[in-house]
């Protein structure tokens, strides 16, 4: 008598494990596909995947006096809820996709209206100035906010070293352009590469930093590794990530979101509860991890330090 | 069990699934870093999906074999309204915590909220008159006229989503195309010369569930 032990089921009939784990999704998908709209709905429902291995620690960090004494947002939330469209437009996309970003070797070209243009290696930048921990409020234009312990150094440390000329009125920052590493750059979601800019006096302000880490660790890819700008009194999109170029220019840079929607995203984009926004009320915000909304403060609570930069300007018009 | 009943049962289960998933995710503390936003977006998405699903019934009935699906229309419509109400309640309660001044400002000043609110208002009388009593009271013709509101409501719903999105309009466009197809079929049949007397839907003659 022939007793078949193992091969009753042809290997071709065995459901692939990945597919098996997705069976619920599949059932939902198959049954509702008729509506034609399901694809969109399912994409939303994918749970965020947070990168597992903790990044290496940064050494020799000094505490900075530019620090707010407010409860810090959890590392999990800071690293799983990101707007970094180069890796997808969903908040969970960067955490899931940013592993493709290669952060070594990495250089930042500093050029334009300067006496001493220079291309800095990332490891050189890490030693350029003492690394400070700065706990900053971070306010997104989408009316949510966090409190993040950045590790970095003042942007003006770099600026001093390249000696800008009198023609340098603005600083333009550019993100890496490489669709192989940044998959969303294959699509026309935004005009790539991402460009941001500051006025010279804003860039020189001691609160403006280049961050290379957070929570004492090397900056996770989804947060803009290996080096990003942090300008805490402006909406988050001004704090450009994964910077490869810093140019000193005479005229106001054409910045990405400003080009996308000039009536929504001004060049300055200082946090301002008085300026109405067509999508989000800027009068209040949800601090991630908190239930009730908070009142949004002018300049994100940094008015004492930065308001003087804008004296004489009508900030309702120059938003 | 008749296959029609099986399909109805499956649809019932499918319509509960998004809510069940949200409850499970909530229990597992897995609603992202911004749970209120996630709940708002998720309930909004499913309201739109089910509303569009309810709009597939009328075109489907052009095929004689699917004439029976009229029984599913009210059910889907009410599920859509259920998710719309959840969406709206989350916005008012969790998001703004009954801060009526801010909510009023939002409705007046944020175009995507204005159209979303309009869609909600248009769906209220539809849900209220979905019962047999109202159908009898209003008579078929007037009931149909009132329920024509579902079209502007669906358009407002899609526009609501489209205007919310900052840059990547892929997903709202999927809904827009689906809605355009569903409305296009209706316009096509409206313009086509009638070959036989139109098969009027008389809701008051429907057998009870």
Short description:
Chain A is built from 10 helices and 13 strands. Chain A is α+β, with helices and mostly antiparallel strands.
Question: Could you explain the architecture of this structure?
Answer:
The complex is a heterodimer of chains A (319) and B (209). Chain A has a single domain, classed as Alpha-Beta Complex (Sulfite Oxidase, Chain A, domain 2), CATH 3.90.420. Helix content of chain A is 20%, strand content 21%. Chain A is built from ten helices and 13 strands. In chain A, the strands form two sheets. In chain A, strands 1, 4, 5, 8, 9, 10, 12 and 13 form an eight-stranded mixed β-sheet that branches. Chain A starts with 16 loop residues before the first helix and ends in a 13-residue tail after the last helix. Chain B has one domain (3-193). In chain B, 75% of the residues lie in helices and 0% in strands. Chain B has helices at 3-27, 35-54, 57-60, 70-95, 100-109, 111-128, 132-147, 150-164, 170-191.
């Amino acid at each position: 008598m022939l007793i078949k032990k193992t091969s009753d089921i042809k290997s071709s009939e065995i459901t692939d494990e990945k597919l098996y784990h997705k069976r619920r999704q599949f059932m939902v998908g198959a049954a509702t596909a008729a509506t034609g709209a399901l694809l969109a709905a399912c994409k939303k429902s994918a749970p965020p995947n947070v990168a597992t291995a903790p990044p290496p620690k940064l050494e020799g960090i000094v505490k900075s006096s530019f620090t707010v004494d407010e409860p810090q947002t959890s590392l999990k939330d800071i690293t799983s809820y990101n707007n970094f469209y180069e890796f997808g437009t969903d908040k969970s996309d960067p955490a899931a996709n940013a592993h493709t970003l290669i952060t070594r070797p990495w250089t930042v070209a500093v050029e334009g209206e300067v006496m001493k243009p220079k291309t800095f290696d990332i490891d050189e930048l890490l030693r350029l100035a003492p690394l400070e921990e700065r706990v900053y409020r971070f306010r997104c234009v989408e009316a949510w906010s966090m409190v993040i312990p950045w590790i970095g150094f003042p942007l003006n440390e770099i600026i001093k070293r390249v000696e800008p000329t009198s023609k340098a009125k603005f600083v333009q920052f550019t993100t890496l352009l490489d669709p192989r590493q940044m998959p969303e750059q294959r699509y026309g979601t935004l005009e790539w590469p991402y460009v941001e800019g500051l006025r010279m006096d804003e860039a020189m302000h001691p609160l403006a930093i280049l961050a290379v880490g957070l929570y004492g660790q090397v900056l996770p890819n989804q947060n803009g590794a290996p080096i990003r700008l942090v300008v805490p009194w402006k909406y988050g999109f001004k704090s450009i990530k994964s910077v490869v170029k810093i140019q000193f220019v005479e005229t106001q840079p054409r910045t990405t979101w400003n080009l996308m929607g000039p009536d929504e995203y001004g060049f300055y984009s200082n946090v301002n509860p008085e300026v109405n926004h067509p999508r989000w009320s800027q009068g209040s915000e949800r601090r991630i991890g908190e239930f009730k909304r908070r009142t949004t403060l002018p300049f994100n609570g940094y008015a004492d330090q930065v308001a003087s930069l804008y004296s004489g300007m009508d900030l309702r018009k120059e938003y | 069990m008749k296959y029609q009943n099986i399909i109805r049962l499956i649809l019932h289960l499918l319509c509960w699934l998004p809510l069940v998933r949200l409850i499970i995710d909530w229990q597992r503390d897995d609603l992202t870093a911004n749970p209120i936003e996630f709940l708002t977006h998720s309930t909004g998405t499913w309201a739109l999906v089910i509303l569009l699903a309810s709009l597939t019934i009328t075109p489907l009935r052009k095929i004689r074999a699917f004439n029976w699906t009229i029984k599913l229309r009210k059910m889907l419509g009410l599920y859509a309204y259920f998710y719309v109400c959840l969406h709206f309640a989350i916005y008012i309660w969790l998001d703004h915590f009954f801060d009526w001044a801010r909510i009023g400002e939002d409705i007046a000043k944020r175009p995507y909220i204005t159209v979303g609110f309009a869609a909600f208002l248009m769906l209220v009388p539809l849900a209220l008159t979905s019962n047999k009593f109202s159908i009898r009271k209003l008579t078929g013709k007037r009931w149909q006229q009132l329920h024509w509101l579902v079209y502007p409501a669906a358009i407002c719903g899609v526009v609501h989503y489209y205007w919310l999105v900052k840059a990547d309009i892929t997903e709202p466009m999927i809904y827009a195309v689906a809605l355009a197809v569903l409305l296009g079929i209706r316009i096509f049949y409206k313009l086509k010369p009638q070959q036989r007397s139109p098969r009027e839907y008389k809701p008051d003659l429907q057998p009870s569930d």
